[in-house]
Design brief:
alpha/beta; globular; five-stranded mixed β-sheet; Trna Endonuclease, Chain: A, domain 1
């Protein structure tokens, strides 16, 4: 059992160092989103009429950013955003870890069938 003093110290560390709570990611999703979207001249966090946000909207694509293990969720969001904006669906799959290629293969497999543009990052 963890004593209350150790628990308090852990909570203070998490509050003062939010990067410790990033689930092991090198950077938060927004970091990748801002760099990539700016590079292609897109609009970050484009707000739709229902309050949802497209991670990056370009002249041609409505793009969802997600870490590789969230590959399935990224497909649904990209398709939804494309429908709402009249743009083509796109996914930037953030691949930080060894083994993330298996998720990329899944997205590319479905991307070919449903006309999703995929950019591995």
């Amino acid at each position: 059992m963890v004593d209350s003093k150790k628990m308090k110290l852990l909570l203070i560390a998490l509050i003062l160092c939010p990067s410790l709570a990033l689930s092991g990611h090198l950077h938060p999703e927004k970091y990748y989103q801002n760099l990539w979207c700016e590079k292609v001249g897109g609009i970050t966090e484009y707000v739709l009429d229902d309050g949802t946000r497209v991670d990056c909207l370009t002249d041609e694509y409505a793009i969802e950013f997600d870490f590789a293990p969230k590959w399935a969720e990224s497909i649904g969001q990209a398709l939804y955003y494309a429908e709402k904006t009249g743009k083509k669906p796109g996914i930037v799959l953030i691949m930080e870890n060894e083994g993330d290629e298996r998720y990329l293969e899944r997205v590319e497999f479905l991307g070919a069938k449903y006309h999703l543009k995929v950019w591995p990052l």
